[in-house]
Design goal:
The complex is a heterodimer of chains A (276) and B (226). Chain A is α/β, with parallel strands linked by helices and 276 residues long. Chain A has one domain: P-loop containing nucleotide triphosphate hydrolases (Rossmann fold). Helices cover 36% and strands 22% of the residues of chain A. Chain A has nine helices and eleven strands. In chain A, β1 and β2 form a beta hairpin. In chain A, α3 packs across α4. Chain A is globular and about 55 Å long. Chain B is mainly alpha-helical and 226 residues long. Chain B has a single domain, classed as MetI-like fold, CATH 1.10.3720.10. In chain B, 77% of the residues lie in helices and 2% in strands. Chain B has a two-stranded antiparallel ribbon. Classes of the chains: A alpha/beta (276), B mainly alpha (226). The interface between A and B is medium-sized, with 30 and 20 residues.
């Protein structure tokens, strides 16, 4: 279970932005999808979760662990969070072979030296992802799909308790995307750890969403019953558009006739303005 | 080849030794400084950055004067150094100190630029894999910034070979002891010994051209291995 409340503002940035989110992700779904347009704070949330960015205030709880608490000044550094992070561009170390990349979490200051035990472990991990034969290749020699698997293998080799996937398919062409989505789903079905996935592709939401969090302009709201809602629409895109148009007031039980009333009022004002 | 009993190779050997040692010392100090200040904002890092770059713009004589105030016999650290039995004034070690300070900004600037060019995602990825900040630096940032730092090192070594002003102030111009190539040329020219000056100028130029070509070759070899 993840419980988080984050506040972080960038007042002095070229485009001022503030992130203000507060939600809990329950234990009944393994995967959570963060969906929203780019620049809505999804990646920033993920960086806060991983400990790469320190929020201004709030708290992050993962399972029973407090990873961050602004009030009591607790901040567990990224190194000790045990959270696997797969970056949008996969962030494989270009100066290391695939095996050295995967073994990185277990090697020392000199990542080129991999001891026998770590070597075997990393090789096994690569075999499990079907890229064992590429152990000695450099990341620049791999295809997009192979890179993605290598990045996932590297993250899992560190034995994380939570997996973060930042737009796992955005670096791939659309045809490959379809195939790899299925592949990733199969690989993730074997995992025992929960995953948080960022996407702005409606297709991904259908495939991965257990729980769905909608992001917009630094705010987020939970859609607890996405699967039920989805049945009423013929495509994931329509369903998500409907959810987005509904806006954050959804939970406030707005009367259906309130909207038109406001409209009438406005029209009246205009009429009055004209008559004067 | 000898002129007035002083071998021509003595100043060359001294120049290489001084430039090499200074480059090595500056490499460690300047790279660590660049790491500490890379991607940092605020008044304090800005001030430190200015101080690290200062030797590039100050006249070497000013640097020499500062160094004498710091490490001279009556300088701030003079007593302390004397107790340790280290005398920098009029010794080749003094020439190393002068060259170290002069080449520092060259390495610092290129190292900082190279470290800031490294993709931040790669460093973040290392962090999420449990690597300490020091390990992130040694195993990811440094190897990826190496080309830029190496170019700075070569430039620094070449600059160290030609160091004149600060060396003259702190180490003097003692033939066979602190007289580097640059000083020997000035000496020979002043004494009207044109043949020796010409010869020294040729040796210096060839050494520097050879050095720059060797650096380019090393970089190319490294690229091919990738």
């Amino acid at each position: 279970m993840i419980s988080l409340r984050l506040y972080k503002s960038f007042k002095n940035a070229a485009v001022p932005f503030s992130l203000d989110v507060d939600y809990e992700i329950g234990g009944d779904h393994k995967n959570v999808v963060l969906f929203g347009p780019s620049g809505s704070g999804k990646s920033l949330t993920m960086q806060c979760l991983a400990g790469l960015v320190r929020p201004d205030s709030g708290h992050i709880l993962l399972g029973g662990r407090t990873l961050y608490d602004g009030a009591s000044n607790v901040f567990v550094p990224a190194q000790r969070r045990k959270i696997g992070y797969m970056f949008q561009d996969y962030a494989l170390f270009p100066h290391l072979t695939l095996l050295q990349n995967v073994a990185y979490s277990g090697t020392g200051l000199w990542p080129w030296r991999v001891c026998a035990a770590q070597h075997q472990r990393a090789q096994d991990m690569l075999e499990r992802f079907g890229i064992g034969h590429l152990a000695r290749s450099l990341p620049s020699q791999l295809s997009g799909g192979q890179r993605q698997r290598a990045a996932l293998a590297r993250a899992l080799n560190a034995e994380p308790e939570l997996l973060l996937l930042d737009e796992p398919f955005s670096a791939l062409d659309p045809l490959l995307r379809e195939r790899l989505r299925e592949e990733l789903l199969e690989l993730m079905a074997d995992l025992t750890i929960p995953a948080v996935i960022i996407t702005h592709d409606p297709g991904d939401v259908d495939v991965f969403a257990g729980s769905l969090i909608l992001y917009d302009h630094g705010r987020a709201r939970m859609v607890p019953n996405y699967a039920d809602l989805r049945r009423g629409f013929d495509s994931p895109g329509r369903c998500l558009r409907h959810l987005q148009e509904q806006g954050p007031e959804q939970g406030q039980e707005q009367g259906p006739d309130q909207g038109p009333d406001q409209g009438q009022e406005q029209r009246q004002n205009i009429c009055m303005g004209k008559s004067h | 080849m000898d002129f007035d009993g002083i071998s021509i190779w003595s100043p060359l050997e001294l120049s290489l030794r001084v430039a090499g040692t200074a480059t090595l010392v500056s490499f460690v100090a300047a790279t660590l400084m660049a790491w500490a200040l890379a991607r940092k904002k605020g008044p304090m890092p800005a001030l430190l950055d200015a101080l690290c770059t200062l030797p590039l713009v100050l006249p070497p004589t000013v640097l020499g004067y500062y160094l004498i105030l710091l490490v001279g016999r009556r300088g701030v650290f003079g007593h302390w150094l004397a107790e340790l039995g280290i005398n920098l004034i009029f010794s080749w070690k003094g020439a190393v100190v002068a060259a170290t300070v002069v080449v520092f900004p060259l390495i610092y600037k290129s190292a900082r630029a190279a470290l800031e060019q490294v993709d931040g995602h790669l460093e973040d990825a290392a962090r999420t894999l449990g690597a300490s900040e020091w390990r992130v630096f040694v195993s990811v940032s440094l190897p990826l910034a190496w080309k830029g730092i190496f170019a700075g090192l070569m430039l620094a070594f070449a600059r160290g070979m030609g160091e004149f002003g600060a060396t003259l102030m702190i180490a003097g111009n003692i033939p066979g002891k602190t007289q580097t190539l640059a000083l020997a040329i000035y000496d020979a020219f002043q004494a009207g010994n044109d043949a020796q000056a010409t010869w020294l100028v040729v040796v210096t130029s060839l050494a520097c051209v050879g050095l720059l070509m060797a650096a380019e070759l090393l970089l190319k070899l490294k690229r091919r291995r990738r």
